[in-house]
Amino acid sequence: MPEDSERVEEHVPSPLVVEEKEKSDTKQMSSWKEPSIKEVPLPAYTDNEALSTEKIGPLEDAEEIVTHVIHVDDDPSLSPWTFRMFFIGIGLSAFGAVLQEIMYFKPQVVFVSVMFLTVLAQAMGTFMAAFLPKGGAIGRFLNPFPWNRKEHTAAVLMASAASVSALSTEALSVQKLWYGGYPNQVAGIFITLSSQLLGYGVAGMMRGVLVYPTSMLWPANLPITSVMETLHKPKAETRKRFKVFWIVFAAIFCWEWFPEYIFPLLSAVSIFCLADQNNAVFTNLFGGSQGNEGMGFLSVCFDWNYIAGFGSPLWMPLQTLTNSFIGYLGCVLLSMALYYGNIWRAQDFPFMSQLLYDGSSNSTNYVPYNETAIMNADFTVNNTMVDQMGTPYLTATYVNYLIVSNAGMTATIIHMLLWNYKEVKQGWAWMTMANMKMLLRPSTYMFWHQSGSRTEEEKEKIRQDPSIDPHYKLMLDYDEVPSTWYFCIFAVSWIVALVCLYVMKSTLPWWGFVIATLFLFVFMVFFGAQNGITGFGYNLQSIFQMLAGYMFPGRPLANMYFTTYTYNGLSQGFLLARDLKLAQQNKLSPKATFTTQVIGCVMGALLNYVMMISIVQNQAPILESAEGTNIWSGAQIQQFNTLAIAWSIAPRMFSFGAIYEWVTAAFLIGFLMPLPFYIMHRFFPRQKIWPYFNTAIIIWYCGELFVGLNASITSYYIIGYFGQFYLRRYRPQWFVKWNYLISAALDGGTQVMVFLATFAVFGGSGKAVPFPTWAGNLANNFDRCKYNANG
C-alpha cells in the first residue's frame, strides 16, 4: 500500500520501470451556464483510436493510469439537470432498491451492480432521446439535447446509491420475527434512513482524503468510466472500441448460459477430482463447485460470474493481486493443517461451515447447537442454560477466518500509520479548534447560504498540489459542496438514530452508540483509504459483532444494531466515496453528485423498509422455517440472528483461557505483523520489495476460503496477471485501450444474463426450471468430487 502521496510509485500495483509522464495542459473551463454543446480544447490522449499509434511506456503509477486510461478532458456545456436524468435515475433507483430487498429474502441472492445499471441507463437514455418530442416548450423540457455523459453519470449515481439492501432491515426483520416485534413503525423508517445516511455524511467530510488524491484510485470505477467514454465520445473516435464492447458483451451473455445452466461442469473443472472421485481429502483441497465443499485448489473455472463475483481481476491492481495470492496460498496450508491436525476438534465438525455446533458432534454426526434454548423471555442470554448445554463449537476453517480477520484489522491500522501516515493525518486535519468553534455558530447550519465557490488563490493552491487527481483539478471551476452540508447530514442522522434506538427497544445503550460512531470515523480513514488505493474491501462485520459481544454480553439485539451503525455505516461510506470518485472521473459537478446521491440514499432506504415490512408480514412462517421455499427464504436473517447470539456469549468462547482464545490474541498479533517489512525498508530503503508487501491483505486472505464456491480462484489469478502484469508491462497500448473496456463488457453481459436467468429458470419468479441432468450437469457434484451430504 502507498506510503504517502509523494511516493505513489512504491504502492501502485506494478514493479515496472517509470517512463516520462505526458502531462495534460487542459485549460480550466468556465462553469456551465447554458445547455448548449461547444467545442473545448482537449489534452493528449483524448482520441481513443489515436492510442493505437501513440507510443506508451509501461504504466507505473496511479497518475499514469488515470491520465491514460481515463482522458483528462471536460465539456462544461453539458448539463445533467434534465427531465430524462431524473426520470431514469428515480426509476432505476426504485427498481434497484426494490429488487435488492426482494432478492435478500430469496434462496438465491443476486446483487444489482453498477455496471448493470450503467447499461440499463444508457439504453433508456438513448431511447428517450430518440423518441421524446424535441420541439416547442414541452420538447425543450423533456428532450432538450442529445443524451449526454453527465446525465448518464448522474442517473447511475442516483441508482447506485439506492440499489443496496440496508442492514437495518435485517435487524428489524429479526426483531419482528424473534424478539417481540417493533413497537413503532416511524422509528423503523428513520432507523433505516439514518443508518444509510450516517456513513455518507462521514465519507463526505473525508472526501479530501478518500476521493481527491490521485492515489485514491478506486480501481472498480475504471471499467465503468471506460465504458462511459466509449458510449459518449463521437462514434468516429470510438467506433472500434464501441464495436468490440458490444461483441464481447453479446458473446459472454450467450456463453454464460452454459456454465451457469446447461453445462455447470465448466464452472469447476478439477483434474484431481476427476482422477479420484472417492477421496475426501481431494474434496476438501481441490473441490469447490458446491457451497462449502472445499478450497478449489488448482480447479479451473470458465464461468465469469464466479471468477469476477467479487470484482473483476482485470481491474484489481497488481500489488493487491500479488499480496492476496500469497495469502491465498497461506490459507490453503493453514486450513488443511488445522483440519487434519484435528485442532479444536476440527474433524468432529464439517470442513467448512458457519453454523454453531453442539459438543456431542462427531465425525459422522454433526449436531447443530440449539440457540433458542439459551434465550430468556426478554431476549437476553440465559447463562445457566449455556452452562447446562455447554459452549458451542465452530469449524476450524471458520475459526481461522476469525483469527486472520482480527489480525488483519489491527495490521491495517499499523500498516497505514507506518506507510501512509500523511494520508491518515490528513484525515483528521479538519478537527481544528477553528472548525470546532465553527460548529457552534448557527450560521454553520444555514447550508442554503453556502455557495461552495473558491477564490483564485485556493484554486491555484490545489492545482500546484502534485498529490491531487488531475481530473479533480479540471473541475475546480465548478462550485464545491461545502463540508457543512455533509456534516448536517451526519448530525441529523446521528440524533435521529439515537432517539430511534431507544424507541425501538434495541437494548443498545447510548454509550454503545457513541462508541459505534467513534469506530465509524476511525475505520473510515484507515479502511476507506486502503479500499481506495488497493481495491481491497475489508469485511469487518464479524469483527464488529465480536466487539459488540464483549461490550454488550448477552444482548443479541444490541449486537445487531451496533453492527448496523458500524459495519453498514462503513460499507455505505465506502460505496458512496467510490461513487464520488466515479463522478469526479466523469466530470459531474459536485452539487449534482450530492443531489443525486442523497435522493438515491433516501429512496433506497424508504423502499427497502417498505418491501421488508411487506415481505415479513406476509411470509413470516416461511422466513422463520429452516428450509424456506423456492420463492422465499429467511436464511440471511437467520444467520444474522445466529451470529448475534453466538457473539453474545463471546467471553465464554474467545477470552483468554477459552477454547478459541487465539481469536482474541490475534488483535495483538496483528499489531506486530507489519513491523518486519517496515524495519527492512528502513534498513534497505532502495529496495522496493519491502513496501510492496501489504501484510493486512496477506493476513486477511489467509482465511479467505472458509465459505462458498471456491473453484474460480485459479482462473481469477491467471486472468488478473495476464491483464495487470503481461499487458500492462509488455503491451501497455493494449492495456490502456482494451483491458478495462473488455472487463466492463464481460461484467455487463454476465450480469444481464444472470439477472434474466434468475427470473426465467432459477426460481426468482417463483418457479425454478432446472436443466435436465446429464454428464455435464450432475446435481450436487458438478466437479465429480466425493459429495458429503452430511457436510
UniProtKB/TrEMBL annotation:
Pfam families per record: OPT
Biased-composition ranges, Basic and acidic residues, are: 1-26
Question: Could you state one GO cellular component term attached to this entry?
Answer: membrane
Report the InterPro entries cross-referenced here: Oligpept_transpt, OPT
Set out the biological process GO terms recorded for this chain's protein: protein transport
Q: MF terms per GO, please?
A: oligopeptide transmembrane transporter activity
Membrane-spanning ranges: 81-99, 111-132, 186-203, 242-258, 325-344, 398-421, 484-503, 510-529, 594-616, 659-680, 692-718, 738-762
Main site of residence?
membrane
Keywords assigned by UniProt, alphabetized: Membrane, Peptide transport, Protein transport, Transmembrane, Transmembrane helix, Transport
Question: How does the record classify its membrane topology?
Answer: Multi-pass membrane protein
Q: Tell me where it resides.
A: Membrane
Q: Where is this region: Disordered?
A: 1-34
Indicate the family of this protein: Belongs to the oligopeptide OPT transporter family.
Q: Which NCBIfam families match?
A: OPT_sfam (TIGR00728)
Q: What is this protein called?
A: OPT superfamily oligopeptide transporter
Organism encoding this protein: Penicillium diatomitis
